Queue: 2 jobs
Job 1
Amino acid sequence: MRRMLRRLPRYCQIRRNFEGAGHLIEVYVSMTMEILHNGHLKVLKEAKRHGRVTVGLLTDAALENKKALPLLSFEQRREILESLDCVDAVIAQDTWGFDAILEQYKPNVFVHGDKWDGPLQGMRDRVIEQLKSYGGQFVELPYSHEFDTGSIAPQMTAALASPYARQKAFRRLLESQRLVRILEAHSPLAALIGENMQVERDGKILQFDGFWSSSLTDSTEMGLPDIEALDVSRRLQNIDEIYEVTTKPLVMDADTGGKPEHFELRTRTMERMGIAAAIIEDKTGLKKNSLLGTDVPQTQADVSEFCEKIQAGIEGQKYNGLMVIARLESLILGKGVDDALMRADAYVGAGAGAVMIHSKEKEPDEVFAFTDQFRKTHPDVPIVVVPSSYNRVKDHELQEHGVKVIIYANHMLRASYKAMEKVAQAILANGRTAEIEDDIISIKQILKLIPGTT
Ligand code: SPV
Ligand code: MG
């Protein structure tokens, strides 16, 4: 066992019995504890040998831009930990790093696993330095790779992501400080890419928070026009297949929602399936894709009728698990920002959990005119945007204008179409496939891609 011990001077032991905002911390262990396993127990039992154990449980805020939100809420994780004999107290650790917690509580002993990958190495050095400054003891335990939560088979993780857990996760995301990024998924394979993709940018780990079930890409994938022709059961089957292999929440593009009576019945099904939110757009008649704007005849719904549909969608549910989000088509139909604001106000009053403002302009100016104004009257209602046409604006700029959720609505299908077209063309042009091998996943890789294939 690799362990580093530092002797604690006797005077420190006495002094620190009374410190830390009224909270005595002898032994400090920091944890996210996505799923409790015997690796955690090993750490906690070892910690207990050094005295009274306080677990610093990472809050959703601490995990922002570092990890996906755990399946269990902070309170659920706290309850589990508090029930363990080897845990004496649980406190909230609100920061990813340890500086603040060590500064505030100056624990006698700090226990941590020895897996400090990449940037975490700097955190380790800092912890040692801080402990040294007041004579704290550093106990480092060998990391148990056997229990790496990240290595849990996707099937098992997916099984843990119950329908209810995904709905809860979405609401927690909306309540958190983070910007929520949603990626279109027209198939389970596209969703798996969204599930696992992680990129480090400016020292932050970024990932997608959930999926968008798009009417445009679901229809296109089936070779059908985006006019609500694809029947709802097929759309729901697609979602069910995506849920089979993933864990993140999904937001469904529910088109116009159909007749209020039908929407009421559908939201019950969607809620039971664990769909996190359904976005309905305020149009009537034969729906056409919004990005066609006024090039095709499209009619906006009457405000009070649309409010009734929102209410029907909420009333149809058993436990209000599915959030009904109202999509404003005012800018798409050339009705202007004031019309969008008036409608947004009415839809929120009818119970919409968030509003989506859509635009087909190349620049985000009209979207910002809406968001800046809406924020003044509704500071807490999440705003959703779909920046397909105004695609040069960066995620943080949208966030600065009060946007909470960004949906990348069709890019996975657009990417796959181009790639497939290129390959099909190259096969005919070259009379063989050797030329395109570098552009496609290798046989070796694809056989390893899905666990259980080999
Ligand atoms: C979709 O993805 O189907 C949408 C967004 O509704 S848009 O295509 O921009 O209308
Ligand atoms: Mg659509």
Note: Residues 411-430 form the longest helix (20 residues).
Job 2
Amino acid sequence: MSVTRESFGFMPDGTEIYKYILENDAGTQVHVLTLGATLQSILFADKNGETKDLLLGFDTVEDYLTKSNYQGATVGPYCNRIGGAAIDIGDKHYELVANEKGVNNLHSNGEFSYRPWKAIVPDADRVELSYVSPDGEGGFPGETTVKVVFRLSQDNRLSIRYHGVSTRDTFLNFTNHAYFNLNGYASGDILGHTLRIDADRFTPVDAHSIPNGENMAVEGTPFDFRTAKKIGLEIDADHEQLKMTGGYDHNYCLCDAPRALTEIGEAEGDLTGIKMNIYTTLPGVQFYAGNFLSGKEGKGGVPMTKRTGFCLETQFYPDTPHRPDFPSCLYKAGDAYESETVYAFSVSAKDENA
Ligand code: BGC
């Protein structure tokens, strides 16, 4: 195992951004940027021994600051959407930035995602990034200190552990917004990937992508991924919820409260045989099929067009601050938020015809 560091460029104010490269003895690499605690690349050998980069992303700081849709970024203090872009805690009212269509707060307007974080290497298999969000940043209460540890094991498990604490009572909901393409980022759309999600229910949304109050069973709908199927099989089916969001872009309900690390699904690239098993301690996961990717050029100048990457953003449910019936993510001042998500990579049998 090794961790090495190289320069990745500079922020407009001159702050240097570093890339940390975690590599195990099998040659698997995970690249993490201090900009937004971003997962930039995962290099993994496919069934024919060819190394693929499994993440959408960019080659420069400037591209991350000007073209990104959160590719690989850490999102917080509250990922996903807060309807009305405002929260109430006790008798206090906090106005947030309405950065989505002037109505929702989405991904905290990038508060955590486009800042320089500090990094240390506590051990030869991990890098720890930290960020202190000042009280009131983006409208959110409290000075919030967050640490994210990315760790790669010898058996190709990438663990992401989050720790957060704030000086005021606040809602905390962190995620990583990796866009995966298990055939490699330059291979086209992800519709041929198979996906399994171990969830019986999901939270349907209104026209602004805010949970509409129902808790819908996946049974008998295109949202049923309890048995693995191709992402593309029913993505354009005539279902009101798919039409509303232009394809899958929904929170799946995994459990009622944070729990021990549990496997929640699996994806596989049809061209590479690269498999990814997903584990998390969190109660929800947003399955987003990259429907809004609009062709911006990413790594190597390759355009990131519609559905060329998919996200499985482990999280508390969207709009939890307005939903007492959802698993709570309100943390008292000084109380620690902790979560872990693991993406474990492997390859299905070698292609006999290769
Ligand atoms: C959202 C999508 C959004 C994407 C990029 C996802 O978490 O659900 O609707 O386009 O993030 O912001």
Note: Helices lie at 61-66, 240-245.
